[in-house]
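Lab meeting minutes (informal)
Scribe: AK
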Amino acid sequence: MRNSLKDKVAVVTGASSGIGKALVYELARQGAKIALASRSLEDLLVIEKELKAQGADVLSIRTDVTKELACKELMEQTFRYFGRIDILINNAGISMRALLEDLDTNVLRKVMDVNFWGTVYCSKYALPYLLQTKGSLVGVISIAGYIGLPGRTGYAASKFAVRGFLNTVRVENRKKGLHVLVAAPGFTASNIRKTALNSEGRQQGESPRNESNMMTAERCASIIIKGIRKRKREIIMTFIEGKLTVFLSKWWPRFVEKLTYAHMAKEPDSPFK
């Protein structure tokens, strides 16, 4: 089958929950071999046990993507075990919810460390292996990588940065066969809002949004995997909150800013009220 993922080796960061976990199951379903990376080894081992029972070839590696050496070891250990790396999906991420004037700047630093520097470190050390296989380098960002979301300064900044970083890596390697995909989900049902940091750097604990009507993590993962197989450059998911908003922001930025502010202000306990 053309562009089949069977026996391809994929590394997925943030693999223990949400979109990352869904990506792992979809990759396994399509026959890929997978290195699961997360800070929670216990959660990874539960997933590993389930997938191995289904016949999948998987490896769990405890990884803190804010640590450069840990990211280097992740790639080296994956290569030693599987003998190649075909896909890296930079999915590990955290969010935040606070106004800039209220928050501790360490919150911004922590978000950037995970979302941006985690992507940089993993991409840097996966790159030699991906160039060997003419593989895929993927970054899971957000609509916040295109539109400034009020109350999410650090999160939006990190996603803008990842998009710029990966777009530049694509240009640098345009003659080397490297595929680079930037995937931007809209609001997706996951635990990222529950673990979002408040102004003091503590997890807020509950999602401020009704997640029942959001895109599922499984649907999001399916779209990303399809984009990898088709070697797409960019995916913006959902229509109104995604494609349409990004399009309108290019022509009517003030209008979009007004709508964005009003939309985010509707959240329970919104800092804009």
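Next up, CB showed the second protein from the same session:
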Amino acid sequence: MERLDLFDCSDVFIASFVTDDRECLHENREHTLLYLCSGELEIEERGKKTFVHPGDCAFMRRDNRLWLQKKAAAGKPYHSVVLKFTRAFLRDFYQRLDRQKIPFDSKREKVSLRLLSNNRPDIRSLFESIIPLFDAAERPSEEVLRRKMVEGIYVLLNTDRSLYASLFDFVEPWKIDILNFLNENYMLDLSLSEIARYTGRSLATFKRDFAKVSDLTPQKWIIRRRLEAAHELITSGSRKISEICFDVGFKNLSHFSKLYKETYGMAPSR
């Protein structure tokens, strides 16, 4: 029998216990720092698998879809502690930073999942101090929770300068580039509202910013990018047409074939 307990304190952090295997699609709406206490965790993103073991700490960038498989192991349940950094929290934290110490030349990395070194005292100290809070009879105070969240941010900032650009991507010069985001995610079934939110904009601002970088509408740009990706794969001749169609984001094979022929003057075939 599976048991799952979630302890959610003001969207600050969550601990979960699973006695049987559990698999789910996780849409990461916020930057997340996960520490695995026991059990095993398998994370899959676009066919690439990453295995997280007890004592490991993983940073998952927001606005990504990941498959998570949580497993009991070695006679122990799956037990993790997760810190979620909301945009509101990060904006408040950013306002308190010393501007002279911010590395504005840091570049936002493309990877959405990063395993942190498992022998760092700051990581071990942070999470070992969090775990007992769940066993306490009373709910931790907001001030205690905030201090733990701040510690978590400094764990990340002390890991790599590029994480400044990832964590604070709502301000210049790190604001998420629209075309970079779409080039990385054109195959996903995202609404314009979701794309706007994922790039840190309102829908109106997204449409205005997109018009500055393309003469096409966002929908037509995505269709063109999917067709280009499909054409490259078809030319290489290594995949079935139906697989290519769905992998690049189309939902209907006949619709894909029609658009492909209109664009390239021939039906898609190897």
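CB comment: The longest helix spans residues 218-236.
No objections, moving on.
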